[in-house]
Amino acid sequence: MNTRQIILDTETTGLYPNSGDRMVEFAGLEMTNRRLTHRALHLYIHPGRDIPEDAAAVHGITLADLEAKNAPTFEQVGQQIADFLRGAELIIHNAKFDVGFLDMEFGRMGLPTVEGLGCTVTDTLGMARKMFPGQKASLDALCTRFDIDRSKRVFHGALIDCELLGEVYLAMTRGQYDLMDEYGGYGSEDDAAAKIQRPPSLKVLSAGEAELAEHEAYLDTLDKITAGKCLWRTEAGA
């Protein structure tokens, strides 16, 4: 898997991109091969309008804060955001909201939409609702489900939410990958044996107690994700 992915989140002045609300924060973290690349884009953005108190209570961003930071307008950074996103798979929680604001802001500048930039979108909210029907699917709820520490999330900041969402996404999709996919995708055990030539001098080292405990903890996580259908334990008859 070599797809360039971007974990993305935004904060805004309100809920309605087509009724005058604007973006006040953008964050994106790049990931390839299920690993963060440390390439990121994080921007505070002056909305050119007031920020209602109820919105500021959610994300903690006030107009005074943005003016103190000398935050740019979207028109000043929109091209930078578009170039960062171009051609990537966007991982977003409640994607309709963020894509709606991005498309609105891009449209004001005459830039392409998210789709026009060649991006695809994966909505982790929709994924969670399919995986855990009838249960809470908020980012907080998913962090609790997957034992992800969210103690630093005082407000709904775009950057901290991206960091948490990255961990949630990896936990949600861990069951989609196995060792054969990662190391060549062999079709059968016979094929794998034929491909791997083990030298006679190769030493076999048994796992220690700490490694075995770590492995069991990992399988416990897979069981939680797959509702007790972890293939390793199922095929081993555990």
Automatic annotation (TrEMBL):
Reaction catalyzed: DNA(n) + a 2'-deoxyribonucleoside 5'-triphosphate = DNA(n+1) + diphosphate
GO biological process: DNA replication proofreading
Alphabetic keyword roster: DNA replication, DNA-directed DNA polymerase, Exonuclease, Hydrolase, Magnesium, Manganese, Metal-binding, Nuclease, Nucleotidyltransferase, Transferase
EC number: 2.7.7.7
Domain of life: Bacteria
Co-factor remark: Binds 2 divalent metal cations. Magnesium or manganese.
Top enzyme class: transferase
Binding site for a divalent metal cation: 9, 11, 161
GO molecular function list: 3'-5' exonuclease activity; DNA binding; DNA-directed DNA polymerase activity; metal ion binding
A Pfam family reported for this protein in Swiss-Prot or TrEMBL: RNase_T
Subunit record text: DNA polymerase III contains a core (composed of alpha, epsilon and theta chains) that associates with a tau subunit. This core dimerizes to form the POLIII' complex. PolIII' associates with the gamma complex (composed of gamma, delta, delta', psi and chi chains) and with the beta chain to form the complete DNA polymerase III complex.
This protein's name: DNA polymerase III subunit epsilon
Species name: Neisseria musculi
Lineage: Bacteria, Pseudomonadati, Pseudomonadota, Betaproteobacteria, Neisseriales
